[in-house]
Design brief:
The chain has 107 residues and is of the alpha+beta class. Helices cover 23% and strands 42% of the residues. The chain contains one helix and seven strands, in the order E-E-E-E-E-E-E-H.
Length: 107
């Protein structure tokens, strides 16, 4: 599977050992649901790829709090980690879409 290394503070590294496009959508702003595995030991599900007004972006799993505000359940803390995570997920999404195009329509 896919492996992406994300440098972290203190000289540590985090490896994304797998990214799976779980489901795609054609008729809404929600384009896909994604799962990823970190270091082969920690899974994050329900990551969303959303077609926003300016660009496609990644939204981490979230829930609505008592005031109606959505809060991330888990998320990268640093900007570089967020950037690497988002780039890796969007790259996997592009590769998935290309692989689906090469298969062609089912008849």
């Amino acid at each position: 599977g896919r492996r992406t290394i994300i440098p972290m503070t203190g000289g540590n590294i985090m490896k994304i050992s797998d990214i799976k496009i779980r489901r795609t959508y054609q008729e809404s702003r929600l384009r896909a649901l994604v799962s990823l595995t970190i270091d082969g030991e920690f899974a994050v599900h329900d990551i969303k790829i959303i077609d926003g007004p300016d660009r496609v972006f990644v939204a981490m799993p979230s829930r609505r709090d008592d005031q109606g505000t959505f809060r991330d359940i888990c998320h990268p803390i640093t900007a570089p980690a967020r950037k690497m995570l988002e780039e890796s997920i969007l790259e996997a999404y592009e590769e998935f879409n290309k692989s689906q195009e090469s298969i062609g329509p089912v008849s």
